[in-house]
Amino acid sequence: MNNDILKVLYSKEEIDNACKSLGNEISKTYAGKTPVVVGVLKGAIFFMTDIVRAVDSYMQIDFIDVSSYHGATESSGTVELLQDINTNITGRDVLIVEDIVDTGRTLKFLLDTFADRGAKSIKVCTLLDKPAGRKVDVKSDFTGFKVPNEFVVGYGLDYDEKYRNLPYIGVLKPEIYANK
To answer: Which of 10, 115, 127, 146 is most buried, by the most CB atoms less than 10 A from its CB?
Structure first.
């Protein structure tokens, strides 16, 4: 697996430090509140686990599964809801936890969906922000790192359901996905 990585962008230590820093920010933002923290499956699972452990605040946890990549290296442009949350978010503060904001289509879909359901507030925490990939104008409230317009994997991010278990964020060698 490691041989498929062109270069490491962020080490496990750098990710851990970012999670602690983001956890402190989120703790301050939600002091005295009990937000619903919604993890976007599958990519955000590792990041969400580390983030919620770094937050000193009560919270409720839920998950949503959406897809727009369908095994490819670029978004299809269509967001499909695969699994919905189980929590009624009407009048609640919601924190969406994402692995990466790339085109912005998935995030826009989630923001619109939760707003339509009557969330009191909606904020976004993402490990990675890739502004060069943006097709829709959305922003994260809490961001770990800005990444270049390269195909990244690891720490939850995948290519064809592989590489999620790498402990770092790396750039996948183009020859791995070029012939797909």
So the answer is: 127
